[in-house]
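Deliverable D2.4 — example input (structure tokens):
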């Protein structure tokens, strides 16, 4: 019986063991293992001073940081150089000879933390020979039109621990830089610009404790002109040629939104002399006349600094919002021709039914559909946009709902009484009783119906009307006569 129980439990225990193994594998797999250096390997000796340093790749991280030093964790040779996700590093100016070099690798994890791994080391070879010559890398040998502010850059010479540099205007006259020891660097910038349009000669001699490179040739290049082509650097400017000084505003303030390093605003006098008004992107004036605007970018190239300008002239003119006097209508077979009559000292443009466009210089809109329309008049000089409603259609609200013809001087007549001055005029107005009998044809230019029929006062009641506009649009409605 006991034996049977053990057999029965065995599959259950196996499942538990299997799951436990999976979980352990998951958690263990989530840990990052520090890499080992693979080139050179830990403890290796007689390593070349221009050797590349490589290490095992680590998956699932954001990158590496590498320090090289003469002590464990030290960085006196290379200070925490980022290698991104590349698992190798080439020392730019080589490694010191006959030295134990410690490599310390840090791992940047996805959560923003990092792990610094234990240092490993190798020993470099004892260099016993002088280095070879090097080659100019920037400017390239024999290149033309070189910028006068260029720095000299050369390739690393294996085994070199320093460089001596001389620069001149001939192979034998190093008048620009008598030979100096620049140390273990691969770049040097002269304190002064090189002369323009000149052949430049440069001699670079690598050295170490065993001596210097011999028979290094003098290399040459030619400089160009100092002028900077501003066409690619001048800022784009966007200022209108005419700006309005609005009648209702005493001062005009103009603000430039151009992307530039600096700005200047000038007023141009009648004798062509100029007065500087502002050196910011804003200026204010209350005078009409001629002005000039400058925007510039400061450009530094080849050791030279200059302003790259863009310039625009503009006029400040007196201007104002328009006032619409009326809209004249011509009824054609294709619709309506609307002529907008305005007053004002501005320079205007016109749009129909849409304030944002399309604007036209012509004040006449042809073949417009019948109905009511919105007219927009905009001052081109920036003094504002006004709207005017052209109403072709009569509405019942344009007529009184009642009147009281009792000769008290108040509401004694019934007539078109629009709330809006833009309501079209009438060409005919008819009054009917509730049975449809015509009581009066009212003259649109008169004071209106006095509530009588053939001289007899009509009783208090509801009456009907039919009105016809000058655009042949008819409307019907009713009103009350009260006594």
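Example output (designed residues):
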């Amino acid at each position: 019986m006991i034996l049977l129980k053990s057999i029965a439990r065995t599959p259950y225990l196996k499942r538990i063991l299997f799951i436990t193994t999976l979980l352990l594998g998951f958690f263990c797999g989530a840990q990052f293992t520090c890499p080992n250096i693979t080139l050179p390997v830990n403890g290796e000796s007689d390593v070349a001073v221009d050797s590349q340093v490589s290490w095992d790749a680590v998956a699932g991280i954001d990158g590496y940081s590498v320090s090289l030093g003469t002590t464990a964790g030290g960085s006196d040779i290379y200070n925490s150089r980022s290698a991104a996700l590349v698992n190798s590093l080439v020392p730019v100016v080589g490694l010191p000879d006959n030295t134990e070099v410690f490599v310390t690798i840090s791992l940047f994890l996805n959560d923003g933390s990092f792990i610094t791994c234990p240092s490993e080391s190798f020993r470099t070879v004892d260099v016993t020979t002088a280095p070879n010559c090097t080659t100019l890398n920037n400017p390239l040998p024999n290149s033309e039109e070189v910028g006068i502010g260029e720095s000299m850059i050369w390739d690393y010479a294996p085994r070199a621990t320093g460089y001596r540099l001389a620069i001149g205007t001939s192979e034998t006259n190093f008048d620009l830089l008598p030979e100096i020891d620049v140390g273990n660097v691969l770049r040097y910038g002269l304190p002064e610009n090189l002369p323009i349009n000149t052949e430049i000669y440069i001699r670079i001699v690598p050295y170490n404790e065993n001596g210097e490179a011999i028979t290094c040739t003098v290399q040459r290049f030619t400089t160009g002109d100092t002028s900077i082509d501003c066409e690619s650097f001048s800022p784009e400017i966007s200022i209108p040629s005419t700006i309005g000084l609005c009648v209702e505003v005493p001062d005009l303030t103009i603000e430039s939104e151009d992307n530039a390093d600096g700005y200047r605003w000038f007023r141009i006098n009648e004798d062509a002399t100029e007065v500087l008004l502002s050196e910011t992107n804003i200026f204010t004036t209350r005078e009409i006349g001629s002005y000039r605007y400058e925007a510039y970018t400061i450009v530094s190239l080849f050791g030279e600094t200059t302003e790259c300008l863009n310039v625009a002239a503009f006029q400040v003119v007196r201007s104002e919002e328009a006032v619409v006097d009326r809209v004249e209508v011509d009824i054609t077979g294709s619709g309506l021709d609307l002529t907008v009559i305005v007053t004002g000292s501005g320079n205007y443009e016109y749009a129909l039914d849409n304030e944002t466009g399309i604007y036209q210089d012509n004040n006449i809109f042809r073949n417009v559909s019948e109905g009511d329309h919105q007219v927009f008049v905009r001052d081109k000089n920036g003094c504002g946009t006004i709207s005017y409603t052209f109403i072709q259609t009569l509405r019942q609200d344009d007529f009184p709902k009642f009147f009281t013809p009792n000769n008290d001087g108040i509401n004694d007549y019934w007539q078109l009484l629009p709330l809006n001055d833009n309501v079209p005029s009438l060409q005919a107005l008819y009054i009917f009783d509730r049975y449809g009998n015509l009581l009066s044809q009212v003259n649109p230019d008169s004071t209106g119906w006095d509530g009588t029929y053939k001289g007899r006062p009509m009783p208090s009641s509801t009456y009907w009307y039919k009105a016809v506009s000058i655009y042949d649009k008819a409307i019907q409605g009713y009103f009350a006569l009260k006594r």
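The chain has six domains: 1-31, 37-123, 136-222, 232-314, 323-390, 396-481.
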